[in-house]
Design a protein that fits this description.
Layout lengths: L2 H26 L1 E7 L14 H12 L3 E5 L7 H15 L3 E5 L2 H5 L4 H17 L3 E5 L9 H18 L2 E3 L23 H12 L4
Parallel strand pairs: 1-2, 1-3, 3-4, 4-5
């Protein structure tokens, strides 16, 4: 093979390799699915200021192989999530799912047994799809009754232990009164960085 033919052949090989690179890169990308309610859907604040958007920015720097998909809906309940989880798992094929549901059930006084059954189903469906689960725990204001709030709070640790999944004891841990919006339920933009750090502490071992 003369020099000119070798040069053409060599450049053809290089071109073929570079054409394959985007496919290789995309195949390595993994999805983290956020499956929650208004606390994850940035209710009342700019979406880009929410903790989920901040998580995407953080991972772009530290773990660029991950992309974050936010499938959270304001007002979502565990029963609503149970109805749509299968489609979400098929559509996004996540490597990790963050389950952040239950607060709206608690605020409506939904029986603890029903919340537990729904969360159990969400965990089991995720794990059957070979998805790592991070369960984000919630708590209720004390005015919902001592017995009910205590059972609600312990529900997340109970499920995490039973199903051997990672969990965050309380998503809003450390958020002060002045860091809530006027409804006293949803954190302000200033509180989102704190929420992110709370989530990251348990998420990092799964990455």
């Amino acid at each position: 093979m003369d020099a000119m033919k070798f040069s053409v052949f060599f450049h053809s090989i290089l071109l073929g390799i570079f054409c394959l690179l985007p496919g290789i890169s995309s195949a390595q990308e993994q999805t983290i699915l956020i499956f929650g309610d208004s606390l994850s859907a940035a209710y009342g604040i700019p979406r880009e200021a929410g903790w989920v958007s901040l998580l995407q920015q953080e991972l772009q720097r530290s773990h660029p192989q991950y992309q974050v998909v936010n499938a959270s809906l304001s007002g979502e309940t565990t029963s609503g999530g149970r109805q749509r989880i299968a489609a979400a798992l098929r559509q996004y094929r996540p490597a990790i799912i963050l389950l952040e549901l239950g607060a709206n059930d608690g605020l409506r006084g939904t029986p603890i047994a029903s919340i537990e059954a729904n969360l159990k189903s969400l965990i089991e469906q995720s794990r059957s799809s070979q998805v790592k689960v991070l369960l984000l725990g919630m708590q209720l204001p004390p005015n919902y009754g001592e017995e009910y709030t205590a059972k609600f709070k312990s529900l997340y640790s109970k499920l995490a232990q039973q199903h051997h999944v990672a969990w965050v004891p309380f998503l809003l841990d450390g958020i002060t009164t002045e860091q809530f919006q006027a409804d006293r339920l949803h954190p302000t933009a200033a509180a989102q960085e704190k929420i992110l750090r709370t989530v990251l502490k348990q998420l990092k071992p799964l990455l």
